[in-house]
Amino acid sequence: MQRVLIEFSTGRAPDDRRAALGVAYGAELRRPIVSSGDVPAGLTVPTLGEAYVPPLCRIAELGPDARPGDESWWDDRPVRDDLWQALVVHLTSPGATRAPLLVLGQPGSGKSVLTRVVAAQLPPADFLVVRVTLRDVFAAGDLQDQIEQAIRNDTGERLDWPALSRSAGDALPVVLLDGFDELLQATGVSQTDYLRRVAAFQHREADQGRPVAVLVTSRTSVADRAQSPPGTIAVRLEPFDESRVGTWVATWNRVNRAAFRALGARPLDREIVLSHRELATQPLLLLMLALYDAEGGDLRQAGELRRGELYERLLRRFARREVVKERAGLPDRELGLAVEDELRRLAVVAFAMFNRGAQWVTATELDGDLAALPLGGAPARERPGLRAPLAAADVVLGRFFFIHRSRTSLDERRRETYEFLHATFGEHLVARLTAEVVDDLVARDAAANLSWREGPGVDDDLLHALLSYAVLSSRATVLAFLGEVLAGRDGAHRVAWADLLLRLFRDVPYVAGARRFDDYRPRRLRVPVRYAAYSANLLLLALAAGGSLTGRQLFPEAADPVAEWRAQVGLWRSQLDPEEWQGLSDLLALDRLGESGARDLRIWTHHRRAAPPDVDVPWLLGLPAGQAGGGWGLSRDLLARLRRNAYLTCDVDSAVVVHAVEPFLDKLATALAVFHTAPGGSASAARALVDAWLLPLRPATERERREVYLRGVRLVAAVSGVVPEWDRAAFLGLLFDRLAADRAASPELVAEVLAACPVEPLGEPAAMFALLRCAQRALGANEVTDLRLARIVNPLVRDGVGQLDVALDGVTADVLVRLHERGLGETFLTPGLLAAFEARYGRQHPDLVRRLDPLVREMVDPPGKRRQHGVANEVEADS
Q1: Would the pLDDT of 59 be above 50?
Q2: Neighbours of 281 (CB within 10 A)
């Protein structure tokens, strides 16, 4: 990419500030891809410039219906081999400064590395690049503050962004925002408008004459958490293909040729690596395979490796190496225990980050966590001769290549912190320790005499301490690692897991008082928040072991498990932070079982956010399945409470729904409260109307149109005893207005719908007018349809002797004359009515006056008949 851009370079030499940034980013290419700690003895880790291989990609513009967080959504987009060319084209196009470029990928796919390489390769003469690692800047700051902080972190200079941008001259400013997913975790609040705020920043800069291109990276799984502004382009990084794996392996072998000779080791074998394709095609895991092989793992003898197993073997080998280095000559049993101590201490580091919702932890925080938890033996400061004191955490942890020191500024103060080389190391360790603690509880439970024990009888204080601060679904990879662990267990063990976790889940609301590890406080949370987090995690672990659970399994003593589930979900929704709740609700899937008093649920986890079926209101209310064709209604007070509750709770989701239906609440509230039970389920009048109104927005077939319109008129017939006549007429008027305007509805369909209409609501002029508009549109199609329309219209518009019995307007007149001219008319007018029509409409419709003349006849009202002769104007007829 750099070579191509330099060939077309037209910019002048960069000033000192831009050059300083270029030097800082260019130095990244000369640093090893593993930049801290020890690696296997004698090995040389390639530099970023040597080892980087541009991945394959898929590219798509994100429209309103895009689902970039759904893996299947990308399947129809072609795999491309031109990532560098695509980036060059984008950065040199006008669209680059109007909306951000979103780079997505799985953990370890190379998103952050891509931003490091792009920052180093864009020529400073033509681009002013600022790379912002979002976890290293003040998470709650605005974008300009974050950019200026990143510049200070990289160059040591305090630079004002507007001044720096203006100094760029013809060079295009490019901001690389790395780690949107980590920003979500650090703030714990919804960031749905983040990309729109980025676009707003771009628009402001363009208005000020400082156009800027922005690139944002994120894990694919959270891509849907931010609304994409118009013009957003997304690039999803794809796994390596065989040629890219081969290129990377060749670089590794070339850099380590001398080391392999000195150690008498064989180079990394491309074909052996490719036999572990699931791992080898992800850049980070490919590096793990190389390190595992170099550490003596010998991939030829490894068998089939899964990701979790690779991490476990690699971490265990490095922990063993550190123990042997400090305590040579330990017996095998003591050596094994010491290795476990190392891994547990590393897991405490992982939990320190997980429970704080961060990707880093300070030495002070880590010291406190290790002192409060009984993991890895006594705290290091109390174990003379064993290892360095934990107060010197950089000595303890800095030896491991997968942990390195970094700087963070969550509260605008610079601190030295520890973080994993990649988040997946910490996620594996969280899963590992969680499984180890549950295994221990299961073993203790199995060894106890259950016949006399009351209550859950399980000392879960350690599990509670670890899992009551953050929800596992906020890190989907943790659950994936746990799934791998459980996949290796037999069925009986998984059943024991699920049984124990279910008992703990049921007991959570009733446990109060002090616990043994209350000194472990990674962050300050309200007690209900911890109840919510712990219960959610127990459910997720039980589902991981059991696959699915029913409401009656979760709440065996409840008369109605659905009500208990609703209360439980209400706790989670009210107490978890928005991102945790979103992650949990995205992961859980649910089936509704049974009906009425036998209602139940089936819950499981679904990593692709399966779309739920249509809402079944009778089921939610605990009503028995209604007989098809029946109508029923809800209390009007329930609708009033809906509005009041949304206002009182300040709940965004409820407020959005109430806002959408407020016109119904104000003008036709019964449409929300009356339902019709059809073979396909129950639907409210409001739902039936909305379905009809939205028909033009989808390619509906004639059959689908028929179902929509007939459902509407049948609903009106079914609720005759439930709602006032005026409301039924208003509904019909709205439905027929849509039908009259629906040019895709055939005349035959119009006639069928009108024939199904109940007569009583048509006494309201607006409903009758809408029906006549439908007849007007359908007349003239064919003789059969015309005859059917005549049989519908004639009885509605005339009295017992044939005289017109409705107001005469332009639509009614047109329908009457067309029926008469086809020999199907049965209605006549009085001379006075025709004269009144001519006076009002003669200039607009002179032809109608002439054509109405054959319908005129003198007629005396029958005794006792009260007639309302009249001519309606267009406004009255349409009101």
Answers
A1: yes
A2: 21
DSSP symbol at 306: -
In sequence order, the β-bridge partners of residue 677 are: 682
Residue in the structure block whose two tokens are 């008369």:
559
Of 115-124, 623-632, 833-842, the range with the lowest mean pLDDT is 623-632
Could you read off the pLDDT of 432-470 as tens digits, one per residue? 999 999 999 999 988 875 545 554 568 899 999 999 999
In Å, how far are 440, 443, 450, 544, 848 from 447, measured between CA atoms? 11, 6, 9, 23, 96
398-402, 581-585, 738-742: which range is least confident on average? 398-402
pLDDT confidence band for 862 (50 / 70 / 90): low
Work out the pLDDT band at 40, boundaries 50, 70, 90: low
Residue holding tokens 């409060």?
A: 372
The span from the CA of 217 to the CA of 110, in Å, is 10
Query: How many angstroms separate the CA atoms of 341 and 337, rounded?
Result: 6
Phi/psi of residue 173, each to 5°? Answer: -65, 135
Q: Which of 807, 809, 793, 799 is nearest to 861 (CA)?
A: 799
Give 659's contacts (C-beta < 8 A, 6+ positions apart).
none
Which span out of 35-44, 203-212, 382-391, 473-482 was modeled with the highest average pLDDT?
203-212
Task: Indicate the pairing of strand 415-420 with strand 403-408.
Answer: antiparallel
Least confident residue range of 168-172, 247-251, 393-397: 393-397
Return the exposure string of 418-452: e unless at least 16 CB atoms fall within 10 Å of the residue's CB, then b: bbbbbbbbbbbbbbbbbbebbeebbeebeeeeeee
Q: Which two tokens stand for residue 818?
A: 């067309």
CA 45 centroid distance within chain: 38
Residues near 244 by beta carbon (within 8 Å), at least 6 away in sequence: 53, 55, 56
Cβ burial, residue 357 (10 Å; 0-12/13-18/19+): buried
Other C-beta atoms closer than 10 Å to the C-beta of 794 total 16
Q: Are 273 and 266 in contact (CB under 8 A)?
A: no
- Judge residue 461's burial from the number of C-beta atoms within 10 Å of its C-beta, 0-12 exposed, 13-18 middle, 19 or more buried: middle
SS3 content of the chain, % helix, strand, coil (to 5): 55, 10, 35
Tokens 């609703």 -> residue: 566
pLDDT at 763: 86
Distance separating alpha carbons of residues 574 and 654, to the nearest angstrom: 13
As a whole number, the mean pLDDT across the chain is 84
Which residues share a beta bridge with 216? Answer: 102, 177
Q: What pLDDT is recorded for position 392?
A: 35
% of the chain beyond a pLDDT of 70: 86
HEC sequence for 664-689: HHHHCCHHHHEEEEECCEEEEHHHHH
Sheet containing strand 172-178, strands side by side: 57-61, 233-237, 101-105, 213-219, 172-178, 127-133
Contact yes or no for 286/250 (Cβ under 8 A): no
Using the predicted structure, report yes or no on whether residue 741 has a pLDDT greater than 90: yes
Q: Are 415 and 394 in contact (CB under 8 A)?
A: no
For 177, list phi and psi in degrees, rounded to 5.
-100, 105
For residues 779 and 230, what is the distance between their CA atoms, to the nearest angstrom? Answer: 45
For 174-201, the pLDDT digits (tens) are 999 998 887 776 555 557 788 999 999 9
In one letter, which amino acid is 235? V
Tokens of 593: 């079982």
